[in-house]
């Protein structure tokens, strides 16, 4: 029994740490950290260490399945693919290319995602291609697009080590992006000043120089307040503003309303601390700003992002090493799925699908007509299906029935389609609804690339063979294209050929190749003639839209505030030990054991007032639903605020959360709502949520 | 267990280590350190012998060879519905070629811990350990402070390799080969080797002194060990350090002496249809496997009891316990050494910067002020 090691990239969050997959007998038995990896440098979080448990061979799909009379039967690949092709051709012929589409995956490789959008645009002739980024950092993309022209992390992860002030707003990186969190703690040891803005006393808040424990949902008031203090003291970077920004005067006039006294009342933060924070951030040589879903998941999500951008621009803390506006992204390849153009409005490298020149460029390169009409989002496809206008959908590695808002509507949409094909590792809730299910290869079973949150494209390698007849996504699409009558269009033999084709058709990736990625331990886009070795830092001389836009934004109340009926604030969070809905991490007996007895974190004073004992069962209810769980005493939350991790289907926090939306991006206000708690009789255990799979809405 | 013989006349000289490796490869599968294209060093098993072995201080892999003896994950026994069957690992003879002194000290430590563990012993019996003397300090290593190196300690390897001199002109070296156990002596039977004499042994001792003198001042580690054993580390310091423990388990996974494990069952669910056997009705049986995997005492759940009670609920208690296990005098009677062998891997892997150097420095600074 021989043992092999193959280098790859951790499949969990967007940090993109290096791991060696140790395999024996075609099984992943262990992982090893890589000391030479540029980001992780020999470190991993608990999730990464437990990767082998998540790659479960017991439940894997190994053969194509087709539903006959309501039951799945094993069929050959040939049969499955020709059936899919015949149906798609018929739908296109009868109802037009707008009636078919694809949903790709932020967990799949760039090659898989490139193939998915090419199949949609060149084979199906539709722009109906989307993936889950829509319910991730959409306010980041929308907000930074307005202010800077580009929605990616502006700087590099190791810039944390070059900053002398680090400002973390609404993010819990030691738990969710642990290796970045560790770098922040290390920077603090070295002498950098750390400011944490968070309603919870996170681990970073405990070690911070300054913790602004604001009332939940008051980010804009706080950020405008800081701006006002900065202008009042003349701490703004006038030189940078004059050269790189527009709209400073209007912004200055706008924030004058946000006096220290007023902001202190709204946010609950001491005025002196606001002044200290404003001075530290604005006067730093280099200040690194990171934020997470404590900024994006509000009805004011996009405006929150704009307020963050205003602060960085006014202080000139962008475009240099150790600075930047750095959104922390959740999934291993959510950056890549966007970059590859798995969005209805853009081709790879964000080339506009509405631009005739772009369309003819791709049409020439692919030697075929491409889609002409605007495409639908995933919610749009589901909506059109319910109205009878959408007939055939291919879904790669996503489980929208479980993870998208409003399960019933999504299911109705899928049911209304004439053909649903799901390409998956295991029989998910969505796959159960499919007409055809195709077995896919996991990340450990293929070569390809992932792009992490600092825009670094990194190679992954095959460590074990796919089980049974499972295939790689791009291979499946390549064969399906042949069945559709395009024998040459996607006739790749290797993932490297897919990557090379993509690089030829983009600017940001034009300087990349597999050998160069290997040689450089990954390359950060843009990597082109101008930046042959990639780009550690964006916007050093200009913004994609020219001058940075300073846009006044107003503090608004959250959609719900506590009242007599629902007197507590409620927020959601993540634990270090789990990822998303827990489907991978909860297979580890070690991580599962770390689950607290109580899943509702409550300040001991609140519990005392209610006469509750630690770990007592309670019913938590909001205007939308209720769940039973146990309470866990915690000093992380302040009195009046309750907090719940969203990994556990037994107590799905999304039964409670508010679906009021950010008007610009349709991001639901998952971070805050109002709830009530009622104790269960002392010896009565909480019931696991009956509709346990229904409501866990996962957003990264 | 190693047969611990020390015979006087079992020292030889060798010009080309490849000759020894080729000889051993006839009888053993070779496990050795290899470097990948990024410069990453890994212990790997290979059946060809084209790749040159890497040795010594420059080549201490981040991951220790622990997993070859104490597997990350293994089936202990299976239940087929009626009986339990022990599943011992299927192993073939392996030679671990070029193990550094620190890791050898750790294996000797594990040998004691797992003395009565059939799974460990099955693997251990089939392994020949070829140790190598380090020729200079490594980046985070402080083996001299904890009596684990830089030269291979007595009674920790079957064969010991020590480079006596290098001929710069043609790049060749002269190696001292010490066969330290009966297993070691047997392993080189059939090779034609020149005998070494006392002057070669003296040269090895001299080189050892030279390497020892090259280590930087790690007295903070010795000081901190004393403070730890005096119980003079303030509780507040453990609190401060423990905020930085994310519970990733990296230190315990990489530590070559950490041996904690847990077990869990994987149950193969059978359809619950009653099967009629004569007049009795009996449920169809369930099959299961019981698996053992590495655990970590830094996890909150490590000591959590079914009632929810946890004697080490606070991270500070767990962090303190970890370092107590590595440096307490209380374990000396049982293991004759500390639980730390000075490899410094925990310093490299800890995301929270509370590996051994960081912690011992903090303790030294705090306690001496």
Give the SSE map.
The complex is a heterodimer of chains A (700) and B (369).
Chain A: E1 3-9, E2 18-24, E3 27-33, H1 46-49, H2 51-54, E4 65-68, E5 71-74, H3 77-95, E6 100-103, H4 110-124, E7 129-130, H5 138-147, E8 165-169, H6 173-176, H7 178-190, E9 193-197, H8 203-207, E10 210-212, H9 219-233, H10 238-244, E11 245-246, H11 248-255, H12 260-267, H13 271-283, E12 287-291, H14 293-296, H15 301-314, E13 325-327, H16 334-339, E14 346-347, E15 351-352, H17 356-366, H18 378-386, E16 392-396, H19 400-403, H20 407-416, E17 419-424, H21 429-432, E18 436-439, E19 448-451, E20 456-460, H22 473-483, H23 495-504, H24 514-519, E21 523-524, E22 548-549, E23 568-573, H25 589-593, E24 600-602, H26 604-610, E25 617-621, E26 626-633, E27 641-645, E28 673-679
Parallel strand pairs in A: 6-7, 6-16, 8-9, 8-12, 9-10, 11-22, 12-13, 16-17, 17-18, 23-27, 24-26
Antiparallel strand pairs in A: 1-2, 2-3, 4-5, 4-18, 14-15, 19-20, 20-21, 23-28, 25-26, 25-28
Helix pairs in contact in A: 3-22, 4-22, 4-23, 5-15, 9-12, 9-13, 9-15, 18-20
Chain B: E1 11-14, H1 17-25, E2 29-35, E3 41-46, E4 73-79, E5 84-86, E6 94-100, H2 101-113, H3 118-125, E7 127-132, E8 159-167, E9 172-179, H4 182-187, E10 194-195, H5 198-214, H6 219-230, H7 235-242, H8 250-254, E11 261-268, E12 274-277, E13 280-283, E14 287-294, H9 315-327, H10 332-335, H11 345-349, H12 356-368
Parallel strand pairs in B: 2-6, 6-7, 7-8
Antiparallel strand pairs in B: 1-9, 1-10, 2-3, 4-5, 4-14, 8-9, 11-14, 12-13
């Amino acid at each position: 029994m021989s043992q092999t090691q193959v280098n790859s990239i951790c499949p969990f969050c967007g940090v993109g740490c290096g791991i060696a997959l140790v395999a024996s007998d075609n099984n992943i038995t262990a992982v090893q950290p890589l000391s030479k990896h540029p980001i992780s440098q020999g470190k991993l979080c608990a999730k990464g260490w437990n990767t082998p448990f998540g790659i479960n061979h017991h439940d894997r799909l190994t053969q194509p399945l087709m539903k006959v009379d309501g039951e799945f039967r094993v069929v050959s690949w040939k049969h499955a693919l020709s059936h899919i092709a015949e149906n798609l051709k018929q739908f296109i012929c009868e109802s037009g290319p707008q009636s078919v589409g694809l949903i790709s995956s932020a967990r799949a490789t760039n090659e898989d995602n490139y193939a998915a959008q090419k199949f949609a645009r060149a084979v199906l002739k539709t722009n109906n291609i989307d993936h889950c980024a829509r319910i991730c950092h959409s306010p980041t993309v929308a907000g930074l697009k307005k202010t800077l022209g580009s929605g990616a992390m502006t700087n590099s992860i190791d810039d944390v080590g070059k900053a002398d002030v680090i400002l973390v707003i609404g993010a819990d990186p030691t738990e969710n992006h642990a290796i970045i969190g560790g770098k922040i703690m290390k920077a603090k040891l070295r002498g950098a000043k750390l400011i944490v803005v968070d309603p919870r006393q996170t681990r970073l808040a405990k070690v911070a120089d300054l913790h602004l424990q604001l009332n939940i949902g008051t980010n804009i008031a706080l950020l405008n307040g800081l701006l006002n203090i900065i202008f009042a003291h003349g701490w703004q970077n006038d030189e940078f503003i004059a050269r790189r920004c527009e709209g400073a005067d209007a912004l200055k006039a706008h924030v004058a309303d946000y006096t220290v006294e007023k902001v202190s009342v709204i946010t609950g933060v001491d005025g002196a601390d606001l002044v200290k924070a404003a001075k530290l951030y604005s006067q730093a040589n280099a200040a690194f700003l990171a934020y997470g879903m404590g900024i994006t998941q509000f009805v004011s999500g996009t405006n929150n992002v704009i307020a963050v951008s205003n602060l960085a621009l006014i202080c000139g803390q962008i475009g240099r090493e150790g600075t930047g506006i750095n959104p922390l992204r959740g999934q291993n390849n959510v950056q890549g799925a966007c970059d590859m153009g798995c969005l209805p409005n853009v081709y790879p490298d964000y080339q506009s699908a509405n631009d005739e020149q772009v369309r003819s460029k791709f049409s020439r390169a692919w030697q075929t007509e491409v889609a002409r009409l605007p495409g639908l989002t995933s919610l749009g496809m589901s909506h059109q299906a319910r109205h009878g206008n959408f007939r055939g959908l291919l879904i790669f590695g996503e489980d929208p029935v479980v993870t998208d808002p409003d399960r019933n509507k999504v299911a109705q949409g899928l049911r209304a389609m004439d053909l649903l094909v799901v390409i998956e590792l295991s029989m998910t809730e969505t796959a159960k609804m499919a007409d055809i299910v195709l077995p896919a290869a996991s990340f450990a079973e293929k070569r390809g690339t992932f792009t992490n949150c600092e825009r670094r494209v990194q190679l992954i390698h095959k460590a074990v063979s796919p089980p049974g007849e499972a295939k790689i996504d791009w291979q499946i699409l390549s064969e399906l294209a042949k069945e559709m009558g395009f024998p040459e269009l996607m006739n790749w033999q290797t993932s490297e050929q897919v990557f090379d084709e993509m690089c030829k058709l983009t600017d940001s990736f034009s300087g990349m190749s597999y050998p160069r990625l290997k040689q450089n331990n990954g390359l950060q886009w843009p990597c082109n003639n101008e930046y042959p070795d990639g780009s550690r830092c964006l916007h050093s001389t200009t913004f994609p839209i020219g001058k940075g836009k300073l846009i006044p934004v107003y503090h608004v109340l959250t959609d719900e505030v506590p009242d007599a009926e629902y007197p507590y604030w409620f927020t959601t969070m993540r634990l270090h030990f789990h990822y998303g809905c827990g489907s991978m991490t909860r297979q580890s007996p070690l991580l599962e054991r770390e689950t607290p007895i109580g899943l509702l974190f409550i300040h001991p004073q609140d519990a005392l007032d209610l006469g509750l004992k630690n770990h007592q069962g309670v019913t938590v209810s909001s205007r939308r639903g209720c769940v039973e769980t146990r309470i866990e005493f915690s000093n992380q939350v302040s009195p009046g605020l309750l907090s719940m991790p969203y990994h556990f289907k037994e107590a799905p926090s999304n039964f409670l959360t508010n679906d009021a939306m950010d008007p610009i991006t349709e991001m639901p206000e998952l971070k805050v709502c109002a709830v009530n708690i009622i104790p269960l009789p002392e010896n009565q255990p909480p019931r696991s949520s009956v509709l346990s799979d229904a409501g866990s809405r996962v957003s990264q | 267990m190693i047969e611990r013989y020390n015979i006087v006349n079992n020292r030889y000289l060798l010009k080309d280590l490849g000759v020894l490796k080729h000889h051993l490869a006839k009888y053993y599968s070779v496990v050795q350190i290899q470097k990948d294209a990024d410069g990453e060093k890994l212990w790997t098993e290979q059946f060809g012998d084209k790749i040159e072995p890497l040795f010594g201080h420059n080549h201490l892999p981040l991951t220790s060879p622990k997993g070859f003896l104490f597997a990350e994950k293994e089936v202990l026994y299976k239940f087929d519905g009626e009986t339990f069957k022990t599943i011992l690992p299927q192993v073939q003879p392996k030679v671990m070629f070029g193990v550094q002194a620190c890791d050898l000290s750790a294996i000797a430590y594990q040998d004691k811990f797992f003395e009565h563990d059939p799974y460990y012993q099955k693997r251990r019996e089939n392994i020949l350990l070829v140790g190598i003397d380090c020729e200079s300090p490594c980046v985070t290593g402080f083996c001299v402070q904890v009596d684990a190196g830089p030269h291979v300690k007595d009674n920790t390897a079957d064969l010991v390799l020590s480079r006596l001199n290098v001929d710069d002109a043609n790049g060749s070296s002269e190696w001292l080969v010490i066969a330290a156990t009966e297993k070691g002596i047997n392993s080189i039977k059939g090779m034609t080797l020149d005998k070494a004499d006392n002057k070669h042994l003296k040269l090895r001792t001299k080189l050892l002194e030279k390497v020892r003198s090259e280590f930087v001042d790690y007295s903070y580690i010795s000081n901190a060990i004393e403070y730890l054993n005096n119980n003079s580390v303030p509780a507040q310091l453990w609190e401060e350090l423990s905020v930085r423990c994310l519970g990733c388990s990296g230190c315990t996974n990489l530590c070559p002496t950490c041996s904690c494990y847990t077990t869990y069952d994987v149950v193969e669910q059978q359809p619950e249809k009653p099967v009629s056997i004569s007049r009795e009705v009996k449920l169809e049986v369930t099959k299961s496997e019981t698996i053992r995997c590495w655990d970590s005492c830094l996890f909150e759940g490590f000591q959590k009891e079914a009632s929810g009670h946890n004697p080490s609920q606070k991270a500070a208690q767990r962090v303190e316990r970890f370092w107590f296990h590595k440096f307490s005098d209380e374990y000396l009677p049982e293991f004759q050494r500390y639980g730390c062998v000075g490899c410094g891997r925990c310093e490299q892997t800890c995301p929270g910067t509370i590996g051994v150097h960081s912690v011992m420095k903090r303790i030294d600074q705090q306690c001496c002020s």
